[in-house]
Amino acid sequence: MKILLVNNFYYNRGGDCTYMFALKDALESRGHEVVQFAMHHPKNFDSEYSEYFVSYINYVEEVARKNISSGLKVLNRAVYSSESRQKIEELILAEKPDVAHLQNIHHHITPSIFYALKKHGIPIVWTLHDYTLICPNTSFISNGKICEKCKKRKYYWPFLSRCKKNSVAASAMAAMETISHRLLGVNDLVDMFLTPSEFLRQKLIEYGFDADRIKCLNNFTSVGVIAESAGNSNYYLYVGRLAEEKGIRTLIDAAILSKSGRLKILGDGELKQEMEDYVDAENGREWVEFLGHISHEEVINLIENCSFVVLPSEWYENFPYALLEAFACGKTVVASRIGGIPEIVKNWDTGLLYKPGDVENLALKIRFLVNHPEKAQEMGRKAREIVKENLSPDRHCEMLMEIYETVIAKSAKVNK
Fold first, then answer.
1. Which strand ranges, in their side-by-side order, compose the sheet holding 214-216?
2. HSE of 74, CA atoms in CB hemisphere, 13 A
3. How large is the angle between the packed helices 248-258 and 272-281, nearest 10 degrees?
4. Do 166 and 143 meet the contact criterion of CB atoms below 8 Å apart?
5. How far apart are alpha carbons 317 and 35 in whole angstroms?
6. What was the pLDDT predicted at 64?
7. How far apart are CA 351 and CA 366, in angstroms?
8. pTM for this structure?
């Protein structure tokens, strides 16, 4: 089968890219041909299809110019990219793919490509990695808190709340993009939506999407499964961005309160310096260590050797790779009971759950696992088995092929 993989970026940037590259490798290793379509970017990896990629746009620079020309350019590109439609049609004519599998296409490629795909009878499968279709700010976060004010298509709220980057312009653009796509009916052109979590699937249905066109297909990984965990040191990990909604403040307070083991924080973000200063002010360096941004190989090595991983999110996490990779390495996870997390972290079975933002309860869970390493290891082994049985590349590709074949058959009937 020839699959057209579409994503804004073609380098390791976030979860959507992690999934796309893993899927590309998995499909190609099973004899399928993968064609790529993305945006040109200075960090992109090499691709034999790059001549078809759309031109690069830097929204931060364009918005900073604060002139009418840049504003119109941003609005036009974010809502409907004529260039993307033209370029993907050229790629379709050259390669004739059987199915298009989209990842993150908002703001850069845009749903304009749907019209070219439909013109040539190519079915569209779209994996949603965030909440953009139902939340203009993509995350259900407004000013640091969970927000669902846009429910029932009340898309005037971003203008009032400045939920996107605390900017009127960015929030207005996000709202106008959502409104425009709703009015154009572009989502009706998608044959099948895929969601990494059942939580996201249910949110889409709650916001009016057709349940029959949405399937939950969890992310997958091969990380760690090829070898047993390397050790069980007296430290535990946080892996991710240092941001308010990630619960980093709650975690640091709990780590200092627990006075058990040592928390190693892997990652960077807007709160990094503030959190380091806070730990110093609380005399917490004995319990908390910041390692900053490190390579993926180093991250996996630290996971393999840790006691457990903590995921303290205070927003609707979907199906985070930090959790998936911890499980793959045979590590249990202490996580907040929110979003898609409880779908994989089963309390006292594969991990421990606590109420988001509850410092004392999180400290209690940390202290328990540090003092009972045998229980952490037992739950970690169960977590690893779940990855091997249900979240492996083989299982994922098997289920994905069934979806591809279904939409291809349905599309063939429609286009007779």
1. 33-37, 2-6, 99-102, 124-127, 192-195, 214-216
2. 21
3. 20
4. yes
5. 30
6. 60
7. 11
8. 0.91
Name which of 10-19, 25-34, 143-152, 271-280 the model is least confident about: 143-152
Please give the sequence-ordered ranges of beta strands (E in DSSP) within 169-306, or none if there are none: 192-195, 214-216, 236-239, 263-266, 288-292
Q: Where are the domains of the chain?
A: 2-129+191-220+392-414, 236-390
CB 197 within 8 Å of CB 218: yes
**Cα angle for residues 121, 126, 128 (degrees, 5° grid):** 165
Looking up tokens 């007779």, which residue turns up?
416
191, 126, 317, 389 alpha-carbon torsion, rounded to 10°? 90
Tens digits of residue pLDDT in 222-250: 876 655 555 668 899 999 999 999 999 99
| Cβ–Cβ under 8 Å, residues 376 and 382 | no
Query: What CATH architecture applies to the domain 2-129+191-220+392-414?
Result: 3-Layer(aba) Sandwich (3.40)
How many residues does the structure list for the chain? Answer: 416
CA dist 288 and 286 (Å) reads 6
pLDDT at residue 223, rounded to an integer? 74
State the Cα angle at 375 between 374 and 380, rounded to 5°. Answer: 100
CATH 3.40.50.2000 describes domain 236-390: yes
- For residues 406 and 83, what is the distance between their CA atoms, to the nearest angstrom? 30
Contacts of 304 (CB under 8 A, 6+ apart): 224, 229, 230, 231, 329, 330, 331
